[in-house]
C-alpha cells in the first residue's frame, strides 16, 4: 500500500494505515487486492486501512436495482463484498480490514461477529450503545428521542455498515462508521435494502466527535475484538 503505516499498531504483525485525502473507490479496490495477495503469499503483514471516499454508491451481489432511487446522483460501483447498496462519502470512516482469517479460526460468521463487536466497543467509548439485529446487517442505535413507529416500536437508525469478502482466507472490504457524513446522500438508495429504518451518525446523535477521535477509539478496542492468532 502506498500510505505510510501509522505508528503504535495495537497488535504485533498488524499494520495500520490512514489516508488523509478521499480515495477513489477503484484505487482502493486495487490497493486492497494487491495487499491481500501479498498477505496470502506471506510477504506482507495483515493490515487495517482507515480512509474516506468521495461520494459514491456501491452495489453488492444481492443489490436490488429498484433500491437505487437516484442512479445519476453519484457514481455507482459494482462490488463483490457482501451486502446490497451502500453509500460512502466524506465524514464517514471506512475501515478496510485485511486479516488472515485462516489463522484466526476459519470461521466467517465468528469473524463478522468480531467486526460487529469491534464497532460496538468503539461506539461505547462515546457512550453510544450500538446493537445488532437478526436479519439486519450492521450496527444500529435505538432512537428514544424520536416518535414511536406506527407499529409502536422504537425507531432505530443505522450507524455502521459491514460487508466483507474472502480470498484464500484473507479478508478485505470491512466496515464503515458514520461520523459526520451528509445524511441526505443516503436518500439516493435504500441502504442495505431496509427502508423502514433510518441512518444516523455520531454528530447527528449530538456528539462533537471528529474523525481522529474515532480512529483512536478503533485502535484502542481492536485487540479485544481480534486477539493475536495462536501462531
Question: What's the end-to-end separation, in Å?
Answer: 25 Å
How much helix is in the residues? 10-25%
Classify the beta-strand content into a percent band: 25-35%
Average residue-wise pLDDT: 91
Query: Roughly how many Å is the radius of gyration?
Result: 17 Å
Uncertain residue ranges: 4-11
Summed up, the helix count is 3
The SSE string, one letter per element, is EEHEEEEEHEEEEEH
Secondary structure: number of strands: 12
Q: Note the main sheet.
A: 9 strands, mixed
- What shape does the CA trace take? globular
Précis, in short:
The chain is α+β, with helices and mostly antiparallel strands and 231 residues long.
Describe the protein in words.
Helix content is 21%, strand content 29%. The protein has three helices and twelve strands, in the order ββαβββββαβββββα. Strands 1, 2, 3, 7, 8, 9, 10, 11 and 12 form a nine-stranded mixed sheet that branches. Strand 8 and strand 9 form a beta hairpin. Helix 2 packs across helix 3. The chain is globular, with a radius of gyration of 17 Å. 37% of the residues are buried.
Blueprint (SSEs and pairs):
Layout: E1 5-6, E2 14-18, H1 25-41, E3 46-51, E4 56-59, E5 76-78, E6 85-88, E7 92-98, H2 108-124, E8 131-133, E9 136-143, E10 155-167, E11 170-178, E12 198-199, H3 211-225
Parallel strand pairs: 2-3, 4-5, 10-12
Antiparallel strand pairs: 1-2, 3-7, 4-6, 7-11, 8-9, 9-10, 10-11
Helix pairs in contact: 2-3
Which features does this protein show?
3 helices; about 230 residues; 3-stranded mixed beta sheet; 9-stranded mixed beta sheet; alpha+beta; 12 strands
Amino acid at each position: 500500500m502506498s500510505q505510510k503505516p501509522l505508528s503504535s499498531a495495537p497488535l504485533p504483525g498488524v499494520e495500520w494505515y490512514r489516508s488523509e485525502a478521499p480515495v477513489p473507490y477503484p484505487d482502493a479496490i486495487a490497493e486492497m487486492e494487491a495487499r491481500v495477495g501479498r498477505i496470502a503469499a506471506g510477504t506482507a503483514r495483515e493490515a487495517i486501512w482507515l480512509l474516506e471516499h468521495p461520494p459514491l454508491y456501491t452495489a453488492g451481489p444481492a443489490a436490488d436495482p429498484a433500491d437505487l432511487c437516484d442512479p445519476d446522483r453519484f457514481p455507482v460501483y459494482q462490488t463483490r463484498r457482501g451486502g446490497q447498496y451502500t453509500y460512502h462519502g466524506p465524514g464517514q470512516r471506512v475501515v478496510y480490514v485485511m486479516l488472515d482469517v485462516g489463522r484466526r479460526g476459519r470461521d466467517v460468521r465468528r469473524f463478522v461477529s468480531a467486526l460487529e463487536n469491534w464497532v460496538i466497543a468503539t461506539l461505547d467509548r462515546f457512550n453510544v450503545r450500538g446493537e445488532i439485529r437478526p436479519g439486519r446487517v450492521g450496527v444500529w442505535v435505538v432512537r428514544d428521542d424520536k416518535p414511536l413507529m406506527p407499529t409502536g416500536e422504537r425507531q432505530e437508525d443505522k450507524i455502521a455498515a459491514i460487508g466483507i469478502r474472502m480470498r484464500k482466507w484473507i479478508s478485505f472490504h470491512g466496515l464503515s462508521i458514520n461520523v459526520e457524513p451528509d445524511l441526505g446522500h443516503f436518500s439516493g438508495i435504500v441502504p442495505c435494502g431496509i427502508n423502514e429504518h433510518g441512518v444516523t451518525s455520531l454528530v447527528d446523535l449530538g456528539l462533537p466527535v471528529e474523525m481522529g477521535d474515532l480512529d483512536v477509539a478503533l485502535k484502542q478496542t481492536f485487540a479485544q475484538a481480534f486477539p493475536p492468532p495462536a501462531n
